[in-house]
# Entry
Amino acid sequence: MKIKHIKLYHYPMSRSARVKWLLHEILGEDFETETVALRQMAQFTPDFLAKNPNHGVPVLDITYDDGSQQVMYESGAMLIWLADHYGEKGFAPSIDESAARADYLQMMIFGAAWMDMKLWQTRLHQDLLPKTVRNQDFADFNKDKIKNEMEPMLIERLEAHDYICGDHFTSADIMTAHNIQWAGAYGLCRHPALKAYMQRVRARPAYALAFADAADFEG
# Structure
């Protein structure tokens, strides 16, 4: 089936910016975006919870050319699926490129699960949870894991190649770059190889479109 229409439920600088970035890479501006007022708790309304019971963004409403519809609410799954659905755009190795595909999926899931989890736990315990239940030691533990275990792995890759899976930009770079940008808010991922990488990906027109609303972020 072909996609007829895509609507992204989005909040600036959040995980939905990952999906917005890839959509701009693939479709330009030919998709619909609706900003969800997270700070006003719009994600807890009955209509939104019917789309995403986990009350967060992104949410992707997909309408196919036969009139059927689908909802997705995991950013990593969206990046993998969109890159595959629009495979001719070249944002993911094909299933026939077995070794390259394995490496790409490894880095995508690493970013969506392991690194994202550490960043989210840091954000919760430094910024979001009520002060009575925050645990700064746990936040520091997560930051240490990023600095001492994750950063060296990323640096090694990006000292050898321009992009996270080699010399070709893929949707795994969107996941990786978003996490590096997020980590920068906590003084992490400041190595020259990571800074040079971020300069490369930020030069992409789709990046500028995806983060054009960054000033509207309320932390």
Remarks:
- Strands lie at 3-10, 32-35, 59-64, 69-72.
